[in-house]
Write a structure and sequence with these properties.
Number of helices: 4
Shape: globular
Structural class: alpha/beta
Strand order of the largest sheet: 4-3-2-1-5-6-7
Strand content: 15-25%
Number of strands: 7
Order of helices and strands: EEEEHEHEHHE
Largest sheet: 7 strands, mixed
């Protein structure tokens, strides 16, 4: 399951590597870090999206700090598994990541990850670990859910290099 340098075609993420996960939205992108052998993922940041796209400088800084072996992008397909504008945006972002950073990029089904993130946030608030003002970090918690889904079942991820253009 390791990536071979110079190997064209499918690029897999090292099973013992660090990954960054992204929950792509129209206004914000949540970012989390994790690994396939870890115990959960950690919400890291929320990056703004402007008219011209994401804040690539902020993404550059996160990648420089964490030096991931691969990138996981949430795939917001419809409940029936079809396309929608959010899915087109996420796939475009995933392809830009691949082109910019030359790392393996996979997409993971993110259906209901925002609901799960909201439940986690509510539980943390009830236990006093989070405050209402921390709600802006909800997108990063959703990214952590995406990383954990990949870690639980990496074989279910879709390598963007294998998707039609």
């Amino acid at each position: 399951m390791s990536s071979e340098p110079g190997h064209s075609g499918q690029s897999t993420i090292r099973s013992d590597g660090t990954v960054l996960g992204f929950d792509v939205g129209a206004r914000r992108i949540g970012v989390a870090v994790g690994s396939a052998f870890g115990y959960g993922a950690r919400a890291l940041a929320v990056i703004d999206v402007h008219g011209g796209g994401p804040d690539w400088g902020a993404i550059d800084r996160v990648l420089k700090e964490w030096r991931p072996d691969g990138l996981i992008v949430g795939d917001p397909m419809t409940l029936e598994g079809g396309d929608q504008p959010a899915r087109v945006r996420a796939l475009s972002f995933a392809r830009q990541l691949r082109q910019r950073y030359k790392l393996p990029v996979v997409m993971v089904d993110e259906r209901s990850s925002s609901v799960e993130a909201a439940h986690r946030f509510a539980a943390d608030r009830a236990e006093g670990r989070k405050r209402r003002r921390d709600a802006e970090a909800l997108d990063a918690v959703a990214a952590a859910v995406i990383v954990e889904r990949w870690a639980a079942s990496p074989g279910d991820a879709t390598d963007i290099d294998l998707l039609p253009p």
